[in-house]
């Protein structure tokens, strides 16, 4: 969660909270439903297993009771065990942390709505079966009905390569390198911010965009290892100077991680 200025989504009219699916790559039958009172203990157990970041008990109550959260679970039809979960919230751009306000072009005002994904996780035994994709699609289809929401963004641990590849495959763009963003067991770790643009939203054009687009073009042409090395040097070292200036203290915020390997 970023701030308390989140926007309430009218989920009763935009989402079928008991939809049913059979995963194409297995015989598993799942149903999607919103979190409800009584799920807190199970969700906490899953988050402890999935993420190195600890969330306070109040957070688990919030995502179950507070309507500002899109808290969608994928459950086994027969056992009702939660197999996957996505939690997101919609808020004005001006209510985002300072380092995240650069995800939209300056033509969009600070009152423009954006969606922040707090968590996206799947139980280890059920990964790589399309659950994370289905959860994300449900969120995006809901947001498509809110034309004022122009971007969906998230933070991911810099070393979580599988999550980064997943988001890139879902049209999320790398936006910002956040040095020392996560505090995990007394040690700081970097994070990346990724964003996907919806409903006519678009990013600012920055040096980062130029370097990324140039690298992607060279990659398609079959570059040597030196080009790949230069890409990581430019994005992870030179961009550090710009992102470090925008880094704000956010110790009281809930920070997102993804565990979708």
Automatic annotation (TrEMBL):
Signal peptide bounds: none
Start and end residues of each N-acetyltransferase domain: 30-199
EC numbers, comma separated: 2.3.1.259, 2.3.1.48
Superkingdom of the source species: Eukaryota
InterPro entries to which the protein is assigned, alphabetical: Acyl_CoA_acyltransferase, GNAT_dom, NAA60-like
UniProt enzyme class: transferase
Reaction(s) catalysed (UniProt annotation): N-terminal L-methionyl-[transmembrane protein] + acetyl-CoA = N-terminal N(alpha)-acetyl-L-methionyl-[transmembrane protein] + CoA + H(+); L-lysyl-[protein] + acetyl-CoA = N(6)-acetyl-L-lysyl-[protein] + CoA + H(+)
GO cellular component: Golgi membrane
UniProt record, GO biological process: chromosome segregation
Record keywords, A-Z: Acyltransferase, Chromatin regulator, Chromosome partition, Transferase
Keyword Acyltransferase: yes
GO MF term list: histone acetyltransferase activity; protein N-terminal-methionine acetyltransferase activity
Protein family membership: Belongs to the acetyltransferase family. NAA60 subfamily.
Protein name: N-alpha-acetyltransferase 60
